[in-house]
């Protein structure tokens, strides 16, 4: 029986994780669940999984949740605030921590789990994009186990030799005969939309992903392909490789979740339904396999597979992220922060879809060469880039 903490339990990844856990009560015990503001949702998860701890970061929401838990006579302790997330992630009784908070807010709690040498299941790609080398060094230093949840990185991981899986962050891909990582992406909802219509794209259109059901921020990132850009940076750190070792391939059917190309001409791919319960179950049980409610692939029902190169005019954000990866840590930290503010402004109806790339490009231009070698400077740069984009937003409105 392994004990599990889910950071971001009320989100899309959090709910999918609980769906897998519910099928295996003999294998996983839920120690703690966290959410930001969704009281009812966290309360119903508490009723079902009876965790020892729950965290609501918002103090008022925590107060409401405490009342509900008390009235229901449940033993769950409710904590609140950002520090409580770190305390729960570092709890001595936690074996596995699912890092599924969205955005930079997930960095410190995820690092708190890493510093206690936990098995960390990483969905929160922004944490790694923000802090890259520092994050990976901490994983090494504290003997944590890092398993990727992002479907592409989980697919790549599954296509690696077992010996390389033992430590992907420090061994060399070339030593295992690997020549390229092929990162697939669907191209999002606007793969075929006329570029002249991009300025009029609405938030509702942008979050309606053709294949995946996800949180709002990652859905917009998928539409701009910033998501693939963040994943490019994520892959660079998870698999200890250079930008030249990674190629982005558009595959609109989202059945191949990524591939690994070997020097002998072989390409290994991981396939499956576009359903996050598969990578979640893989990482939860690794190196075993467990059942999920995911429908098996039926090859006689599948559409033809197609592949193409992402067009730079259609997906400027992807290319900004690849450029940032080349600049280094300051650039990726700043770009991630800028993108969070730009996407939030787009979702709030303050700016157009095409403004997202414009703001990201401006922030990258401003901060690309800033060095951010330690946690303090990373957090400081994150704040500076956010403030910079907020200033630009004031100029727009
Ligand atoms: P979501 O918006 O559905 O859920 C986010 C979770 O984080 C919620 O529980 C929310 O309460 C919590 N949260 C948000 N802001 C917070 C804050 N400031 N402090 C504390 N908690 C906060 O997002 P999601 O789609 O589940 O994505 C979560 C992470 O997983 C993201 O980093 C995303 O890129 C990554 N991811 C998601 C998917 C997917 O299919 N949804 C796939 C791959 C990777
Ligand atoms: Mg992904």
From TrEMBL:
NADPH binds at residues 10-13, 36, 124, 126, 215. It catalyses: 2-C-methyl-D-erythritol 4-phosphate + NADP(+) = 1-deoxy-D-xylulose 5-phosphate + NADPH + H(+). The keyword Mitochondrion does not apply. GO terms for molecular function: 1-deoxy-D-xylulose-5-phosphate reductoisomerase activity; isomerase activity; manganese ion binding; NADPH binding. Its EC number is 1.1.1.267. Residues 4-132 form the 1-deoxy-D-xylulose 5-phosphate reductoisomerase N-terminal domain. Residues 271-387 form the DXP reductoisomerase C-terminal domain. Catalyzes the NADPH-dependent rearrangement and reduction of 1-deoxy-D-xylulose-5-phosphate (DXP) to 2-C-methyl-D-erythritol 4-phosphate (MEP). Belongs to the DXR family. This is 1-deoxy-D-xylulose 5-phosphate reductoisomerase. The gene is dxr.
């Amino acid at each position: 029986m392994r004990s599990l903490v889910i950071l971001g339990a009320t989100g899309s990844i959090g709910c999918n994780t609980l769906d897998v856990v519910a099928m295996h009560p003999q294998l996983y015990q839920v120690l703690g669940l966290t959410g930001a503001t969704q009281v009812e949702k966290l309360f119903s998860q508490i009723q079902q999984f009876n965790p020892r701890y729950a965290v609501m970061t918002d103090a008022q929401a925590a107060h409401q949740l405490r009342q509900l838990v008390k009235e229901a006579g449940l033993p769950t302790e409710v904590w609140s605030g950002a520090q409580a997330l770190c305390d729960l992630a570092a709890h001595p009784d936690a074996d596995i921590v699912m890092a599924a908070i969205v955005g930079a807010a997930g960095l410190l709690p995820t690092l708190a789990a890493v510093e206690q040498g936990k098995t960390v299941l990483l969905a929160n790609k922004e944490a790694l994009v923000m802090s890259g080398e520092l994050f990976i060094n901490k994983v090494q230093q504290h003997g944590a186990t890092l398993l990727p949840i992002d479907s592409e990185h989980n697919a790549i991981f599954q296509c690696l030799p077992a010996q390389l899986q033992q430590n992907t962050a420090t061994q060399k891909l070339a030593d295992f005969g690997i020549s390229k990582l092929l990162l697939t992406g669907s191209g999002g909802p606007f793969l075929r939309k006329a570029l002249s219509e991009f300025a009029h794209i609405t938030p509702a259109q942008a979050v309606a992903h053709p294949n995946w059901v996800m949180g709002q921020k990652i859905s917009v990132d998928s539409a701009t392909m910033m998501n693939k850009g963040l994943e490019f940076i994520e892959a660079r750190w998870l698999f200890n490789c250079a930008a030249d070792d990674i190629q982005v391939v558009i595959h609109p059917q989202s059945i191949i979740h990524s591939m690994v190309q070997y020097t002998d001409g072989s390409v290994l791919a991981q396939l499956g339904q576009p359903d996050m319960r598969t990578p979640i179950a893989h990482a939860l049980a690794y190196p075993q396999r467990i059942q999920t409610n995911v429908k098996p692939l039926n090859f006689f029902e599948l559409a033809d597979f197609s592949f193409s190169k992402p067009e730079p005019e259609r997906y400027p954000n992807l290319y900004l992220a690849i450029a940032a990866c080349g600049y280094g840590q300051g650039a990726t930290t700043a770009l991630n922060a800028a993108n969070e503010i730009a996407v939030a402004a787009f979702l709030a109806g303050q700016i157009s879809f095409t403004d997202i790339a414009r703001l990201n490009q401006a922030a990258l231009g401003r901060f690309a060469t800033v060095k951010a070698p330690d946690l303090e400077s990373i957090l400081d740069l994150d704040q500076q880039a956010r403030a910079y984009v907020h200033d630009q937003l004031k100029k727009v409105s």
